Amino acid sequence: MPSLTTETDAADETPPACTASPTTRAVREAHDRYVFPVVQTFYDEPMPIVRGQGKHVWDADGGQYLDFFGGILTVGLGHCHPEVNHAIREQVDTLQHVSTLFPNQPMVQVAEQLARIAPGDCDRSFFTNSGTEANEFALLVAEVHTGRGEILALRHGYSGRSRLTMGATGQAPWRLGAGAAAGIRHVANAYCYRCPFGLEYPSCDLRCARDIEDVIRTTTSGRIAGFIAEPIQGVGGFITPPPGYFEVAVEIVRRHGGLFICDEIQTGFGRTGGTLNGIGHWDVEPDIVTYAKGLGNGVPVAATVARSEVAASLEGNTLSTFGGNPVSMAAARAVIEVVERDDLAENAARVGVVLRNGLEELAERHPRIGDVRGKGLMQALEFVEDRVSKTPDAAFTARLLQCARDEGLLIGKGGLYGNCVRISPPLNIEADDARDALDRLDRALSAAEAAFR
Ligand SMILES: Cc1ncc(COP(=O)(O)O)c(C=O)c1O
To answer: Which atom of ligand 1 is nearest to the CA of 300?
Structure first.
């Protein structure tokens, strides 16, 4: 069972989460009745979250959980971070909205921060409200800049919910509706655990990256607008390309006249450890980079940041009613200040080692763990029925998620086959928090195994 104590009142006697309170039941019923049924929720009996503080959240029945998923890698500084909330409160009482028709100070401050910390020469920002919009805009900018319409995307990638970004997404379950957007070709991804070419790194000589040339020559006009990729595939299950991958891939893309669009929506701002941008682990510079999620620590905000020359290609009129909203921008400004001031990229690297070592140690004792991967505080486990066949074990993964919740630990699910768990705690946790989560995960693994015996 989740720990039922709260930080404010440890003695509070609250009902266990499994005996759902009237509030929980009412929220579930209203969700079932009034929300699009396609909206996915975790667990057989989804629980409404009513409060968050730091690394913890509480459900409507008082159950306390260690949140190691952070609302899909979004709450990077922990829930209700005091400095971010202070910035929001101050701004909301000063000026709440103007639209992009009027420059506002928080917006230009964030644009300036991003020009400094975005990779390479990306220094022009366009602000929106979601990762989907940031990627949609990035793809548009690449097409306009190059005057070409064909885009390369990665299999197992996730780019968003609009028609174009769903078209770029490389996973059938997330591509709703009948058709995908035209002009997008999906190249093999760097999925070393399930190498699309049946090879092994490094003797593979990065065949997956080199295959991009073949895809360009055989499935496009040869004139591509760009290549969109996440440094580590988030929804794909934290699939992590090996050293050298992006260097080879991007060289091929550029040689064919395309731009490199780097989707930092999950990897952005210290998450992968030791570098603010996930792409910092490879020696390449994007032409366009996109941010969302962790940029606002929970406030809806996104940015498309491009090289000046690329940004200048877009002519005509554009606006975003809520893009650059002063309140969202005040939050983003505070997030970036805290990440930099507290050197959270270094903390993610340091605590990430503890987490990673612990996960590898769990893999020695729990044979359904087929792969451990990721960087920094972005770590995943991939579950298989056995390590020889590598048959994805989605049923076990679902059970584990439930058992982890029973241990008071929230982790995420992912992967095309639904057989990965994603672990992405706040960037400011300490080594003991990672150990605590590992202990809970160990117990959850044993409980899930017992159920499958
Ligand atoms: C890598 C990546 N890109 C884009 C998106 C889309 O972001 P949003 O859900 O904010 O539209 C997501 C969302 O999970 C993502 O993980």
So the answer is: 10
SS3 394: helix
pTM: 0.95
pLDDT tens profile 285-306? 999 999 999 999 999 999 999 9
The pLDDT, as a whole number, for residue 18 is 53
Contact 184, 199 (CB under 8 A): no
Q: Spell out the domains of the chain, with CATH numbers in brackets.
A: 22-80+344-452 (3.90.1150.10), 82-341 (3.40.640.10)
Secondary structure (3-state) at 353 = helix
What are the beta bridge partners of residue 372?
Answer: 381
Which among 404, 357, 405, 363 has a CA at the least distance from the CA of 384?
363
Rounded distance between C-alpha atoms, residue 58 and residue 247, angstroms: 43
Atom of ligand 1 nearest to the CA of 130: 10
From the alpha carbon of 267, which atom of ligand 1 is closest? 1
Say whether 357 sits in a helix, a strand or coil: helix
d(CA 373, CA 375): 7
Omega before 425 within 30 of 0, i.e. cis:
no
Mean pLDDT of 20-35: 93
Cα–Cα distance, 278 to 369 (Å, whole number) = 25
Query: Of residues 182 and 437, which shows the higher confidence score?
Result: 437
Q: How many CB atoms lie within 10 A of CB 312?
A: 11
Q: How far apart are CA 148 and CA 428, in angstroms?
A: 43
Q: Is 69 helix (H, G, I), strand (E, B) or coil?
A: coil
β-pairing, 420-423 vs 412-414, is antiparallel
How far lies 32's CA from each of 35, 200, 361, in Å? 6, 46, 40
- Site residues for ligand 1, CB cut-off 6 Å: 72, 130-132, 135, 158-161, 230, 234-235, 263, 265-266, 292
User: 134 C-alpha vs ligand 1 centroid, how far in Å?
Assistant: 9
**Both structure tokens of 166:** 């769903």
Which residues touch 403 (CB under 8 Å, ≥6 apart)?
443, 444, 445, 447, 448, 451
C-alpha distances in Å from residue 105, one per residue of 114, 116, 275, 291, 335: 14, 17, 27, 20, 16
